[in-house]
Write a structure and sequence with these properties.
Length: 614
């Protein structure tokens, strides 16, 4: 760096000092160093040349430890003899400064060395800088600036060791080659400090928890008084949080004369008031989850699920449909990797059910959870499929699309009013292999049987779609659940009897509900397994969802119920749903040890012996 120049530049300041001082002060300091260097060079000339030592010379004639300067092309300039002599002396002094091992291993100067050298320069040049009046100027410090800040013993600057933390606390010299090692040490120390900080924060939180005022359950008189004058919602929410905190650490935070049942009863009352459920349904739902997850479930029911649509692959592709809707200003995204036909609509400037694409039958507005039973059923081309509860047609049209308008899809629904929407959607989506009928599903094996696959999306309490129908919170009681479970069991047995076990490609039944209660899901499936030993549960081929219960509150179910799948709004961001898939093994049902029956309508042709005429 300019070692062969006539006016050699002094050594640069350390990086820490360069960042902390102004440019004006740096220039003054460098000018002062240059002046003192020139003065020292003049004194060096007066010494005998014999005392000057030169750096060792290598075989190639170059001095060791001296970096070769880059030769830049420039015009020739005629120099005087004095200038040439001064240049040669500068080169010799540069060679004298270089160490034997080169500049890479040269220790970095500490602040103390810099300050000593600066004090020497200041004292050496003080005589020359005296004014005519005889008053000497104050020696220059590193922090002399326009803003007269206070300066300490070292010029107001902290030491280099303080900036480097503990990296230079030892006596080792800091070289350029071990900078990386020291940087790693600093990173390790920083990570250790962060870990200690987290531990201190956790300890502080524990102290705050210990200093927290103990929560006390309200007395019976206070509970009775709250019935007349209810508390504010914010107070109820705070008490719910306190009860959950106690239940999560029951042994340490509970009151001595209170049981866990007392806390659960209070939590149930507060949640009924806060979320608007009746006590019967709240108790049933609290039994499904832990207290923390129950709160997440109830909170998810207060938020509407995203609008989803299913691409009608008989008329378009999802990519083309998405591009057409995007051109209309619709903000959308694929539902997930588990489906190739679903799209989630986040925002639309026009109603999703009024676009030209909707009118043309390019898509169906359908909940994401309604995709699941059809995906589990997996109908094949040229099969005979029965949808026992088809309205409004989302699952029926999906089955027809998967079958590519081949075979036969029988769409049945017991409600004639709902069939109007079913027929309209079948026509709009261009379905040509569907037959619509209006029968009670329990009568269907006698009406028609021998299907390859049957889909039963049974009527249910709707505890999985509370976000769509908030009336479920209050209008479902014990009588409703008793009636619905009996109907579901009868429909499932009818669906099983309507399937032909000898089908070369089928023999499958899918049972699904939009409910999360065990009475409507696992209990019904377990009942069917006990009444129809000629069926078994198989994997539904759904890659996500929680396995069904194999035991619940002391009641044991069949071990194969782990093959069923449960879906929750707070975990899967879709309506609560239950899916189970059966495989029918035989058309004969064993009633007793040696007695078998064949349900009517199962598609089996019985051979009857002709009576002989006399």
């Amino acid at each position: 760096m300019g070692r062969l120049a006539k006016n050699k530049q002094g050594a640069p300041l350390p990086l820490e000092l360069e960042h902390m001082i102004d440019g004006k002060v740096t220039k003054k300091l460098h000018d002062r160093i240059k002046h003192e260097t020139a003065k020292a060079r003049k004194q060096q000339k007066q010494k005998p040349k014999a005392q000057q030592t030169t750096a060792p010379v290598a075989k190639n004639g170059k001095r060791k430890g001296v970096a070769e300067p880059v030769k830049a092309k420039k015009a020739k300039v005629v120099e005087s003899e004095d200038e040439v002599e001064a240049g040669s002396e500068d080169e010799q002094m540069a060679d004298m400064d270089a160490p034997d091992g080169g500049w890479d291993n040269v220790p970095m100067e500490s602040d103390e060395d810099n300050m000593e050298s600066m004090s020497e320069f200041s004292s050496a040049g003080s005589d020359d800088e005296e004014s005519d009046t005889g008053n000497a100027k104050k020696p220059m410090t590193l922090l002399d600036s326009d803003s007269d800040s206070d300066a300490g013993s070292n010029g107001g600057m902290e030491s280099y060791d303080e900036f480097d933390s503990d990296a230079d606390s030892d006596d080792e010299a800091v070289t350029f080659r071990d900078m990386e090692r020291r940087s790693r040490l600093l990173d390790a120390e920083q990570a250790e400090d962060d870990e200690l900080g987290e531990l201190e924060l956790a300890a502080a939180g524990a102290v705050v928890e210990g200093e927290r005022e103990a929560f006390a359950l309200p007395t019976a008189e206070e509970v009775a008084a709250e019935e007349d004058t209810p508390l504010d919602l914010s107070q109820v929410q705070l008490r719910i949080q306190e009860v959950i905190r106690v239940l999560n650490n029951f042994g340490a935070l509970r009151e001595e004369d209170r049981s866990r049942t007392d806390y659960m009863d209070q939590l149930q009352r507060d949640m009924c008031f806060y979320y608007g459920y009746n006590e019967y349904l709240m108790e049933k739902l609290l039994q499904l989850f832990t207290v923390n997850e129950a709160v997440e479930f109830f909170e998810a029911n207060e938020i509407a699920r995203p609008v989803t649509i299913r691409t009608n692959t008989l008329k378009t592709r999802r990519r083309d449909l998405a591009q057409a809707l995007i051109n209309r200003g619709v903000n959308l995204d694929p539902i997930g990797k588990w489906t190739k036909v679903g799209l989630t609509i986040f925002d639309s400037p026009v109603p999703v059910g009024a676009t030209p694409e909707y009118m043309a039958g390019h898509y169906m507005i359908q909940a994401a959870s309604s995709f699941l039973p059809v995906m589990a059923l997996a109908p094949q081309e040229n099969e005979r499929v029965l949808d026992m509860s088809a309205a409004p047609g989302g699952k029926t049209t999906y089955c027809a699309a998967l079958m590519k308008n081949t075979g036969l899809v029988v769409a049945n629904d017991a409600n004639r009013e709902r069939e109007k929407a079913l027929v309209a959607n079948i026509h709009r989506l261009g379905i040509s292999n569907a037959v619509v009928c209006n029968y009670d599903g329990r009568e269907f094996p006698k009406v028609m049987g021998g299907f390859d696959r049957v889909l039963l999306d049974a009527p249910c309490s709707g505890t999985g779609v509370i976000s769509k129908d908030a009336s479920v919170k209050t209008n479902k009681g014990p009588e409703d659940f008793s009636m619905l479970t009996n109907l579901q069991k009868e429909l499932l047995l009818s669906a099983i009897d309507s399937v032909n076990a000898d089908s070369p490609t089928g023999g499958y039944i899918v049972y699904s509900t939009c409910s999360v209660t065990v009475e409507e899901d696992e209990a019904v499936v377990n009942y069917a397994l006990s009444k129809r030993p000629n069926i078994k549960l198989v994997d539904a081929k759904l890659d996500f969802g929680r396995p069904g219960f194999t035991s619940f509150r002391g009641r044991a179910f069949h071990s194969s119920l782990s093959l069923t799948r449960r879906f929750y709004p707070h975990t899967h961001n879709m309506d609560g749903f239950f899916v189970a898939k059966f495989k029918k093994l035989s058309n004969k049902v064993q009633v007793e040890e040696n007695q078998f029956i064949v349900p009517a309508g199962s598609g089996v042709k019985l051979k009857q012996k002709k009576k002989r005429r006399n």
